[in-house]
Amino acid sequence: MTSLDVPQRRSHRAVARRFDTAGPLTYVFLIVVTIVSLFPLYWSLVVASHTNDAVYAYPPKLLPGSNLFHNIHRLFNSGEVNVDFTKALINSAIVASVVTVSVVFFSALAGFAFAKLEFRGRTLLFVLVLATLFVPVQLGLIPLYIEMIHFHWLNNIRAVIAPNLVTAFGVFLMRQYIVGAVPNELIAAARVDGCSTWRVFWHVVVPAVRPVAAVLGLLTFMNTWNDFLWPYIVLNARNPTVQVAISDIATVAYVPDYSLILTGCFVSILPLLVVFLLLGRQIIGGIMQGAIKG
Amino acid sequence: MKGRKLRRGRLALAVLLVAAAALVAALAATAASASKQDTITLTIDVFGDFGYHDLYTQYEASHPGITIKEDTEDYAPHHTALAQHLATGAGADDIEAIEVGFIALYTDQPQNFVDLRQYGASDLKARYPAWKWDQAVAKTGSVIGLGTDVGSLGICYRKDLFQKAGLPTNPAVLSKMWSTWSKFFAVGKQFQAHAPKGVKFIDSGSNLYNAIIGQANPAYYSPSGNVIAATNPKVKAAWNQTMVAYGSGLDLGLSAFSNDWNTGFKKGTFATVTCPAWMMGYIQGQAPATKGKWNIALVPGGGGNWGGSFLTVTKQSQHPAEAADLVKFLTSPASELYVFQHTGNLPSEIPVLKSKAVQNFRNPFFSNAPVGKIFATSALALKPQILGPHQGDIQTAATNAIQRVEQKKQSPSASWNQFLKDVGDVSG
Amino acid sequence: MIPGPTLDGRTGAAAAAPRRGRMMAWRRLDPKVSPYLYIAPFFFIFGVFGLFPLGYTAWVSLTDRNLLNPAANFIGLHNYALLIHDSYFWNAVENTFGIWVLSTVPQLCLALLIAHVLNAQMRVRMFFRMSVLLPQVTSLVAVALIFTQMFGHQYGFVNYLLGLVGIHHVYWEAGRLTSWIALSVMVTWRWTGYNALLYLAAMQSIPWDLYEAAAVDGARRWRQFIHVTVPMLRPTIIFTVIISTIGGLQLFTEPYLFQPRTSGGTGGSARQYQTIVMYLYEKFLGSTQFKFGYAAAIAWCLVLLIAVFALVNYLVVGRIRKAEP
């Protein structure tokens, strides 16, 4: 459409050679960071692939055992764990997908308005958005629960979806990003071309926010997937999300079977990794965008 | 350029379609679950393991048209959720299990529970020891719950460790040797003198304290409902005895139910544990490899109760009559016996405690000890225990106070003073 | 924009005239009305699900409401007055700020560094980016289990490693500073990748010619980082600082799950790591006190603290030199 598409590959490569190539020190640093990030996850896989005894072994067990598939089989056998893990996975997938799409879209919309549009009360309203972040979620649980009773949404996944459809975090993030990433000249040019506000949003802002939209989408999906407290309160074992299901496994017997619990945790991560892979490409795509936009 | 726009547009469209499909699926799912209304489903909410699974099957078989669904949580979240559900007027199951640490809180709020006298509970009173029955009776006379189990006490000990330290291992002999707590500590000192390296006589000060307090009567509350923790010499005595045990080097100082404590079972770092009946199941689950190395003797001081629960029917239930009937079934002598034999929870009803089945019951894990006899004797000998609404918090304050000393953060006297302050806070 | 036929079938100039009229009307309204339309979804959701809880807890904080008892008396600001003299509250404030400093400052610096490093051309970039975010993916149950085990006193993995270099049996959970350190490690581990990715996304929008210009001026990687990256990242840095402030002061789940089971929500035997939200939770739901009114007052004090502290941080971070246009 406009200057967005002008290729500047030459200057990109020139800068890249001088600036970008990672040296060996960088790799070492990253490998250390990766090991630290991965280790707890790895160790939970180790425990999941042994029997319960492995949790308390000392010195700690460090290599995976052979029990993983057996534990996975136990996990999905509802009779033993008293909760339908498949249903939990499906519920979480629905909730996380709907919330993610909604949050990314509406946050971009509102963030754009706060960042680039002039209107009365803009600063005050934005501060209000921020202020909503200040209140700790724990205390609002009871009144929110009362609301859910009135809507007849107890034990219904709507109770877990609706309050999260737009978040102040998303609006704030988008606004900060758009302030820096979308040049005013671009918007002015689009206006001159006769674009309505919607078209400005759709054709100028949306392409520009792809990296942060991917990140926000990823983070929102993960946070919703991992959300524990509110679903635990408003849902029960008969219509759970995956975190509620895991905590229910944890209480099935007098002594928690940690290998089974961590198997549940491990299985619940797999869909997240899929989402990673899908959205991760968007983040890479952002590099090209940034390169070209110079 | 146009291609990119088109691709973006298609991507956005695809995303929106997925979201819409998901929304439709969600709505459909919630609609579907509402359709099955022909059978009555009774929901029961417990914590830990009450051992009722086979009993549900039995009941459903003899009562076609009734389906039972159990929810279970950990002890603390269970009671938190109960409070929240009662406070907001929705979300409680038909039947709720309440542990003795919280029951006094709810006898203060009988309006939340169905008075089981409406369903013939009064006829069942004679089956229970008076102290157990009274714990679930509100000031208004309303009977809000029927007792499930009791936590009468014994001492579980590792006979192989005792042997290594040159102590006798016969439970009858030991029970006589430690008929009082001072004698118990004397035995402990004997043990420590020749104990294997790193092994202590007692696992945790708070476990010891809970057992001693479990024998005190009155303990934290007077019969009229006042908090007397500060002035009751029995409370101070329990504290002092715990401090003596710690000061004499008998106490390993572990935090009960922590990872270190769990591992301690496996590694044999402590020789005795104060054992309410439900602790048996715990030990068996934690350290299956130690089967046959444990035995059980009588608790010093005789008697004492730590734990035990009740089943209640909440006013939120849509089927109070059916729920009450199920409660009566689950707490019937036959059911309690079944649970005892398979899960280890000690029955709370006199006829069951006195029955041959219980009295002759032996547990192979604990060297075939006559656990039925040991615990039943203790339960039947118990005098009334007066509870109050903030029982659980005072217990927590005491546990923290003991831990502070064990973790070398405060001297015993400073920690005791802070305990008193906390008691005032909590009950104020 | 090529006009097509109108709904009632008119085409050409006849169709164009009224549509043009509608278009002109919308054109006038659009800049004025659209902004409000765009922010409306947020305020609608917030209005339904956020405002009522807020108002409710504000009201409750002025009463002596017990959770289990619907009847309550209006007592004005009495709860707040009690709070000021509540040593456990101030203890929780101290714990919260202590843990915040230990966890947030290193975390954000590390995140910036990691993002900068990940911004470079390299092999298997995707893999490193994903692994940095894996801590976020791990469920809280697993995190609590793993870290409690790792920082265990007798049998913990960290003590095992420390034992190899001669440091024996640190009782992490029992000590004040040690519990803060353990919790900071947990929080940093969990949130660094999150912030790194936010910085990375923002770095994507920095035009290359700025780096090129700096390179031409003789600036090496580090100076480019200080003089180009950081100023351009200023809005994002402000964002992460404010979010970390809010999140850090509201810390609850990690310390709550770190407790031994007998702790009863007190954050350790001497409340050494009880945060403000843990104290709030203890007062209103986690014990037998059920002091709903008092807890609501704690919540609103926390809101005030967060607002003040966020403002302070904003002013501090705002001193980063603004990016040259």
Question: What is the H level of CATH, i.e. the homologous superfamily of the largest domain in chain C?
Answer: MetI-like
Provide the low-confidence segments of chain A as ranges: 1-19, 284-294
How is the main sheet of chain A built? none
Helicity level of chain A, as a percent range?
Answer: over 70%
| H/I helix tally of chain C | 13
Please bin the fraction of helical residues of chain C: over 70%
Report the CATH C-level class of the largest domain in chain C.
Answer: Mainly Alpha
Number of strands of chain C: 0
Please give a structural write-up.
The complex is a heterotrimer of chains A (294), B (428) and C (325). Chain A has a single domain, classed as MetI-like fold. Helix content of chain A is 71%, strand content 0%. Chain A is built from 15 helices and no strands. Chain A is globular. Chain B has 2 domains: 161 residues, Periplasmic binding protein-like II (D-Maltodextrin-Binding Protein, domain 2, 3-Layer(aba) Sandwich); 207 residues, Periplasmic binding protein-like II (D-Maltodextrin-Binding Protein, domain 2, 3-Layer(aba) Sandwich), CATH 3.40.190.10. Chain B is globular and about 65 Å long. Chain B is of the alpha/beta class and 428 residues long. In chain B, strands 1, 2, 3, 4, 5, 6, 7, 8 and 9 form a 9-stranded mixed β-sheet that branches. With 325 residues, chain C is mainly alpha-helical. Chain C folds into 2 domains: 60 residues, no CATH class; 240 residues, MetI-like (MetI-like fold, Orthogonal Bundle). Chain C has 13 helices and no strands. The mean pLDDT of chain C is 84. The chains are: A mainly alpha (294), B alpha/beta (428), C mainly alpha (325). The interface between A and C is large, with 115 and 107 residues.
